Give the backbone structure.
Amino acid sequence: MTYTEIFEHLHENPELSFEEFETTAYITAILQSEGIEILPLPLKTGLVARVKGALPGKKIAFRADIDALPLEEQTNLPYKSKKSGKMHACGHDIHITTGIETARLLQKKRDELRGEVLFVFQPAEEAGDGAFEILNTGALNGIEAIFSLHASPLLEVGEIGIKEGAITAAVDLLKIKIIGTGCHGAQPQDGRDPIAASAAIISALQSIVARNVSPFRQAVVSITHIEGGSNWNVIPSEVLLEGTVRTTDKATRDLVNTRLKKIVEDVASAYDECAEVEINAGPPATNNDASLADYAWRTAESCKLTPVRPEVTMVGEDFAHYQEQFPGIMVWLGVGKTAALHNPAFTAQPKAIEVGAAYFTELILRYGSES
Ligand code: NI
C-alpha cells in the first residue's frame, strides 16, 4: 500500500480521542504485514511498534499522535471525511502516515540501523493527556531520545521548523465561580451583584500580562466563557467564568497563576463576595533539547531541506510530557500554506509525508551512528 493510499484512508476515517479503535487496528495491520513487531501493551487505543537494528546501539522513540477533532470538514478533497462531525483538522493523519512510512523504510534498512526504534502511535493528544497512556505502560523506559513532528500550515513542503526550548506553550484551564447574593434587578442594595464583580475581575485579570509578566516572556490570559443570570430583572447569585492561561516557562506559569488567584479573590472580596478558583494544569511547554535541535537542523540541511526557526506558538501539545522524562524534539513539518490547524478548511499536501519519512529515517539512522 502506498503512503498516499494510507493517508487518504486515515483522512476519510477520523476518530476522536480515546475512540481510535479502527485507526489502531489499521496501523497494526499495515505494520504487521511488513513484519514489524507490535509490543504487547495494555492499551485500549494506540500502539507501540518496534524496529530492531542489526547492529548494537541505543534505544530511541518516534511519536505520532493519532486522534481527530469534532469538526465538520469543509473542503472539497476527494478523500474528505466520511464521518460527519469528525475531521483530521490537526494533521494527525499526516503524523500517522509519516510514522508508518518511516517504520517501513527503517525496517528495510535494518542492516544499517543501530539499536532499536520504538514507534509510538499515541491516542488522545487533543484530550490533553493521551501521552500518559503510553508513558504509564513503561514501554519507553530506557530510551535515550524521542522524536516527533507536527504538521505546519505556515511552512511549505520541504521546510522544517526547528527550535530549541519551547515551541508550544503550557496550558492551564480556569474555572472560576463568583458567589454573591441574588436579588431583584431594581433593588441591588438588597444583594451582592456577582455580574458587577465579574466585570471588574475580567478587566483586572488583563493587568497580569500587562503589568506583572516581563516583556521578555510570553503569557496569555483569556476568559472564554461567562455564564450568569437567567432573566432581565433578576440579579443572580453566581457567575461562572472559564478560560485559559498559556505560558512558556515554569516561573512565568507560577507567577501568572498566583496573581490570577489573588486578583480574583481580592476583587471579589472588595465587592463583599466570594470566589472559588480552580486551575487545572494541562501539559507544560514543550522543551526541545538544544543538542537534538542542532542535530535536527544539520540533518535537514544534509537532506537538502530548508530548516527554518519558528516562533513559539501558544497552543498546547502533550509531547511535552515525554520531554519531562526524556530528551526530545518536536519539529514542524511543512505541509504547504493552507488554513490554520483546527480549522475545518485545513488541508495538507500528502507529498509532505514523503519528505517527513525520508527526513526522520535519516535522522534516526544517523543518530544511531553519530552518538
Ligand atoms: Ni495536533
User: Anything to note?
Assistant: The CA atoms of residues 157 and 351 lie 7 Å apart.
